């Protein structure tokens, strides 16, 4: 099967237009039609519904699309492997939740890259659900996530456990308080990051119903910068605020009362077969040196 035919199918799925697909691939529209017709003949199935108004995948097309995407990815990975053979012996792809990368994973990456210069490392950042799906699809080797996988065939390690911290700017009147009762959080206009999971459940107890915050931001490190600039207060994981606390650019006020925020867990997830690969084993060895990924679940 011609790899260009699969590329045409993938692009047509995205553009839903024969003319736009032809333009992107720098071919004539009749070639797009011929490639799709060739693929449908090979598979013996209709892949697209097409008329003057729309181009949509059929049920058969929806079923075949993930396999086409995997073939294309394997082909591109194979080309990259050949082109990189002189520089690297292997590759390691790690999916990470956004906030873990600049926080406790930085020393792990630093040491791994120094110790294994012949391994090409790709770090992919995203949300836990997306990263776990990439692991299921075989796109990544290791997932660093905040939630446990629902599929039991994976090996999971508890690699970090930490608390949530209430922080405010040093010049804020709140900084003079010896403690912050959780019942008083509802009156504070927080800079908010939704960590999801048990944290969301805890927030729902404090803030019944749906409400807005001073700012709702997906990047917790950005929130730390805003707190340092005196914009407001926030509740973040300790690893996120540790450097700012050491700089004395923010103030931690202990949370008291009930319910206190939950402990926050970070997990390392891998398929058991991937553990046989040396780059994967080396990665977990480095994590263990930094007191991470030590507890199998």
Low-confidence stretches: none
Distance between the termini: 43 Å
**Total domain units:** 3
Second rung of CATH, namely the architecture of the largest domain? 3-Layer(aba) Sandwich
Mean pLDDT, rounded to whole units? 91
Helix/strand/pairing class, anyone? alpha/beta
Shape: globular
Predict the CATH topology of the largest domain: D-Maltodextrin-Binding Protein, domain 2
- Give the name of the CATH superfamily of the largest domain: Periplasmic binding protein-like II
GO molecular function: DNA-binding transcription factor activity; transcription cis-regulatory region binding
Pfam families: HTH_1, LysR_substrate
Family: Belongs to the LysR transcriptional regulatory family.
Keywords: DNA-binding, Transcription, Transcription regulation
Description:
- It is a single chain.
- With 297 residues, the protein is α/β, with parallel strands linked by helices.
- The chain folds into 3 domains: 3-83, Arc Repressor Mutant, subunit A (Orthogonal Bundle), CATH 1.10.10.10; 87-161 and 265-296, Periplasmic binding protein-like II (D-Maltodextrin-Binding Protein, domain 2), CATH 3.40.190; 164-262, D-Maltodextrin-Binding Protein, domain 2.
- The chain is built from 10 helices and 15 strands.
- It has helices spanning 3-15, 18-25, 29-43, 59-84, 106-115, 128-136, 197-206, 220-228, 238-247, 278-289; strands at residues 48-50, 55-57, 90-97, 119-126, 142-145, 155-162, 164-168, 180-181, 191-192, 215-216, 234-237, 251-252, 255-256, 264-270, 295-296.
- It has a 6-stranded mixed beta sheet with strand order 4-3-5-14-6-15, sandwiched between helices.
- Strand 9 (191-192), helix 7 (197-206) and strand 10 (215-216) form a beta-alpha-beta unit.
- Helix 1 packs across helix 2 (18-25), helix 1 (3-15) packs across helix 3 and helix 2 packs across helix 3.
- The longest helix is centred in the N-terminal third of the chain and has 26 residues, at 59-84.
- The model has no long low-confidence stretch (mean pLDDT 91).
- Keywords: DNA-binding, Transcription, Transcription regulation.
- Pfam families: HTH_1, LysR_substrate.
- This is Transcriptional regulator.
- Belongs to the LysR transcriptional regulatory family.
- GO terms for molecular function: DNA-binding transcription factor activity; transcription cis-regulatory region binding.
């Amino acid at each position: 099967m011609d790899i260009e035919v699969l590329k045409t199918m993938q692009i047509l799925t995205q553009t839903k237009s024969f003319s736009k697909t032809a333009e992107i691939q720098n071919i004539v529209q009749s070639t797009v039609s011929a490639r799709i017709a060739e693929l449908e003949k090979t598979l013996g199935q209709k892949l697209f519904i097409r008329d003057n108004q729309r181009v949509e995948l059929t049920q058969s097309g929806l079923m075949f699309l993930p396999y086409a995407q995997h073939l294309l990815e394997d082909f591109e990975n194979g080309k990259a492997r050949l082109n990189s053979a002189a520089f690297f012996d292997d590759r390691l792809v790690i999916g990470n939740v956004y906030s873990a990368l600049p926080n406790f994973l930085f020393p792990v990456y630093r040491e791994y890259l120094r110790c294994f210069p012949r391994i090409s490392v790709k770090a992919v950042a995203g949300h836990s659900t997306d990263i776990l799906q990439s692991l299921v699809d075989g796109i990544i080797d290791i997932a660093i996530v905040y939630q446990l996988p629902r599929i039991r065939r994976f090996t999971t390690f508890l690699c970090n456990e930490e608390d949530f911290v209430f922080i405010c700017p040093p010049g804020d009147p709140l900084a003079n308080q010896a403690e912050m009762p959780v019942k008083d959080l509802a009156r504070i206009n927080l800079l908010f990051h939704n960590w999801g999971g048990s944290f969301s459940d805890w927030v729902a107890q404090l803030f019944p119903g749906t409400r807005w915050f001073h700012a709702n931001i997906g990047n917790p490190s950005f929130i730390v910068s805003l707190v340092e600039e005196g914009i407001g207060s926030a509740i973040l994981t300790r690893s996120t605020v540790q450097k700012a606390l050491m700089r004395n650019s923010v103030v931690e006020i202990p949370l008291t009362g009930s319910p206190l925020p939950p402990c926050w867990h970070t997990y390392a997830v891998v398929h058991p077969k991937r553990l046989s690969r040396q780059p994967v084993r080396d990665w977990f060895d480095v994590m263990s040196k930094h007191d991470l990924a030590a507890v199998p679940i």
